[in-house]
Amino acid sequence: MNEAGKIKQATYHLYTFTISKLISTFGSSVYAFGISLYVLALTGSAASFAINLICSILPRTLFAPFAGYVADNYPKKAVVLLSQSASVLSVGGLLLYSMSNGLSLAAIYTATALISVSSMFTSVAFSSSIANLIDPDRIQKAMGYNQSALAIATIGGPVIGGMLFGFVSMNVFLLIQVVAYALAAALEATMNFRLYTRRTETANAEDKQGVWQGMKEGAAYLRKNRVITVIVTTAIGLNFFFSALMIGLPFIAVQQLKVQATHFGFIEAMIALGMLLASIYFSVRKEVKFPLQFSKRAIIVMSLLLAAVSLPLIAGLSYWGNVIYLLVLMLAFGISNVFVNTPIGVMMQKDVDEEYRGRVFGILESMAMAMMPLGYLLFGLLYDLVPAQYVLWACSLCLLILTAYSMRPAIIREAYPELAEKPLDKVLS
Q: In this predicted model, what pLDDT tens digit does every residue of 165-198 receive, in sequence order?
């Protein structure tokens, strides 16, 4: 295929990828909202809800490195379509079971675990395929569109789910998910996952290794590439310390500041709105020249925003002062979140060797997911024992220290040798 034909195909991929991501993510968001409310209504137990959450997180943590191996050693298109089909079968099976026997907790937990595994295979395979689907000059645009789809689903899913929950049965929620996965799979079937690949089918066959050897080699590649190791380490730290915000925001706003549930819903929605605005910005601007340096600045901003969440606890603002302050703060947090993720995502698409890309993304997903329940548990306990502002200040300080060390000037210059010619005080420290 000539270059003009490739660009035309890549343009098709750009929009098809975004639409399929939007459909599947939106369906998942509606389903997750409905199933969460159903479990709470059925049992009235927070523990039952927590078990369903564990069934979603734990399988992703355990199987993500294996998914990375599969993505690197087998045709990515086949992996995506098979995993999407598995998602359709998992939700469809739960739907058939519900129609014949009614929903039970055991059936919900089983389906949640199966959907988590299949969706994770899709996610890792897709994440490692973006550079094969899109021409290098538009990878940032693709990442921006991807973030936009996630933000729209985050905003719209609970809204649609809340509207439907009081009027339709759980079978309708399940049917929406089945249709969403099926439509996404149909769109993905039309895509050429080898458009910009540098590997031949013969090379894939020759490079194929045993599972454990392949996973060990992926970890070894990660250790040898210091810049990519820094990105993964920082991402893990971000997930851990910002779980303090995920736990702390509702605790501070609802329990301590007595913010009404409706107003708190708007506060949380501002994160997704900020992500959407920042994603649109990245989809139209030129590619960031020094993404690691750019993301370092954004992480520093995020760290300061984390500490700033504590201000209403010590400033004595009025009720509306607290609400407006948190609305603006969460909007800024959503924007800075995309300012961290998008440039780094583009950098990893371009800098990680194609034959290792799946395993690197798999390891990243596994470690990041593992930090979430650990962070939720630790900070959930700390908020009961220590004033919330101290927890937030400590997390902010730790994140600043982690960022200052892991993204120190020597690492920045190693990633961008052209910066080595600049005076030290001109390089972000």
A: 777 788 888 898 899 999 999 999 999 998 888 7
Record the pTM.
0.81
pLDDT digits (tens, 9 = 90+) for 216-253: 888 888 888 888 888 888 888 888 888 888 888 888 88
> 243 in a domain, yes or no?
yes
The CATH number of residue 397's host domain is: 1.20.1250.20
Round to whole Å and give the CA distance between 372 and 381: 14
φ and ψ of 309, to 5 deg? -60, -25
Which residues, 6 or more positions from 122, have their beta carbon under 8 angstroms from its beta carbon? Answer: 24, 79, 80, 83, 84, 87
Range of the domain at 62: 1-192
Q: How many domains does the chain have?
A: 2
Q: With respect to residue 201, please indicate whether it lies within any of the assigned structural domains.
A: no
Long-range Cβ pairs for the range 259-268 (8 Å, 24+): 259/319, 259/322, 259/323, 259/326, 263/323, 266/327, 267/323, 267/326, 267/327, 267/330, 268/330
Q: Is residue 203 part of a domain?
A: no
- Distance CA(212)–CA(183), nearest Å, equals 34
Residues 232 and 357 in one domain: yes
